[in-house]
Structures
1.
Amino acid sequence: MSGYKEANFDGLIGPTHNYAGLSLGNIASAKNAGAVSNPKAAALQGLSKMRALTKLGCVQGFLPPLARPDLNTLRALGFSGTDRQVIEKAGRVAPEILANVYSASSMWTANAATVAPSPDTPDGKIHFTPANLASNFHRAIEAGQTSRALKHIFNDEKRFAHHPPLPGGVHFGDEGAANHGRLAEKHGAKGVHLFVYGEDGARFPARQKRRASEAVARNHGLAADKTVFVMQSKTALDAGAFHNDVVGVANGRVLFLHEQSFEDREGALAAIRAAAPFVEIIEADKRKVSLEDAISSYLFNSQLVSLDGGEMALILPKESEENARTKAFIEETVSANNPINRAVYMDVRESMRNGGGPACLRLRVVMSEEERGAVNQNFLLDAEKIAALEAWVEKHYRDRLTLDDLKDPTFMEEAFAALDALTGLLGMGAFYDFQK
Ligand code: SUG
């Protein structure tokens, strides 16, 4: 196989995007709890990031939003009657449950799954394990529908292998690719998989368990000498790095990270160098960029992408341009003698206010040309398809949403009508349960 490239599958931001303060340890989510959201702007910001990537020559795909509100979960929790009654009752007696089942959190597809590309697996297939996201209720209800979406898009048993999410709830808490990176001399070469797990800090709980990362590596058949398991620093976790991708990103030969990412920095870097001798480590010194600056600006939650000419670009959130110290570090990185030589700043503020930067919004799948041809083409984007999705957003999304609006069953109908139209646009058939 040839023509390996990384494709980014972004989460298409759903019509119920809101700020409910649901994620302990995620500072932006806590800070913006109860704020008024703008789902239309959120989805359009996401789509303009996707357009920017296609203009850079990157392969860009997307995953559809999950059906929210999740009526199946509300019914399983004892709310009964017609769909409208289910929403009314939950809104009256348990508005906090209602907010959870309304979350548009599937937009952060870095948490959708962990992926192993075909050069790394024994059967030469691309392996997917959807994340169980066990540590937060609103995210723990994603895995079932996410599995369905992945199977719908990567629908070819000869090329794609789909594992079930890990069992065991928080005991095998798995947050997907947000704590995983792949290093390789070229995308099509055998890669080294870096799994970063956590242990609870003094302030915040760790979401990714070491035993979960190990299980994913086993399921994907990764060779022992091509995997590295490293513990995240408790200082970073307690400062708000609830996923490791808040403090570091890997692509190709490059690992770009904050020096306080790992609990045992020396040991971790030595293990990474031993498994991937070709690695080029670009580290921010804490005297130049403090953890607080890194976490408030999401400097390291950037997408690090390989461009066709061999250069690499950082796709960064605007917030990292607005902080003088992180901006200076980015400029220094881009002009230094290393593979990163472009910085592109994107406005994804609606997502950022829930703790989701550019890298949270995408799931990376390295694929050969043949494998790209086997993907459901409706989910690979070009200018025309992006424009069609923008028109769909313009037609169906609100530009103002509060937590009180979630109690109105008419809003549920509006959200479902939007998703129903999307399945029509994409020829998906009756994909969502509410359509059956
Ligand atoms: O799981 N925020 C998400 C953000 C996920 C970011 N993803 C990565 N770092 N890869 C989370 O904490 C907030 C929802 C709310 O509070 O309404 C939320 O779920």
2.
Amino acid sequence: MQRVKLLILGGSGEAANLSRALANDPRFDATASLAGVTEQPVSLPIPVRRGGFGGAEGLARYLIDNCIGLVIDATHPFAVGMKANAIEACERAHVRLLALRRPPWCPSDGDRWILVDDLDAAAEAIGNEPRRVFLTTGRKELAPFVHAPQHLYLVRSVDAPEPESLPPNAELIVARGPFAENDERQLLEAHRIEFVVTKNSGGTGSVAKLAAARKLGVPVIMVRRPALPNAESVETVETVEEALAWLDSHHAGASARLGV
Ligand code: NAP
């Protein structure tokens, strides 16, 4: 049986789980691709390449040169540039693409969400009065908060930000989820947090802070997901299980065509 070469564009927990699920699948020869932004990424049981391809053109060339038969875009929900590149590159290289996009979080009863379009708007939404703010927006995206130095920030990120990128009044926690609701609640209480700022990443790993904020009545400034160009042109699933089912049907179809 000929193994199908599969490229998983990573950056999400789903990409890691899919990589684990496919590691011993004899039908597929899977490689994961990471942007290389996380210093110590979760280790994966399949080959991993790191760093950009050089735009859509570079990715198309990589797909052709490496005889990739399928691409699964499981990038982070906010990695819009890479998603657009994947669509264009797969079209150019005539490679089938599946997008694995986990659903965004939706507010429940008791949530006090303030929806904004980007991090500049998030910083503005905190207001002029000095506040105690829990920031979980990623270590590379602190600039808007540096420009709002009146607040006290509790910054949590997977890797430590460059010290000069931190707002002046910031305490840092370096930690990787998943986080438990009780711990999140204690954290918000201990730091007397008045606002939580987060991107609407969705998923389970960092959702506990939202439940903790709801219980404590703390408002959450929620950055909406960016619009995805040509999203409707791509076959899309929401879970790893659905992606695996899609791969099963793809493989069954390919075997039937080959008469194997
Ligand atoms: P992006 O604008 O979509 O990507 C920028 C460039 O990084 C891409 O054009 C590509 O470079 C490279 N890249 C991204 N994902 C890649 C992958 N899986 N394999 C190889 N190269 C990849 O997005 P971003 O700068 O990565 O992140 C944007 C947002 O997503 C931020 O809000 C960030 O906090 C969030 N985020 C991203 C990741 C991640 O792993 N990327 C993880 C957590 C959160 P070339 O054009 O050279 O190919």
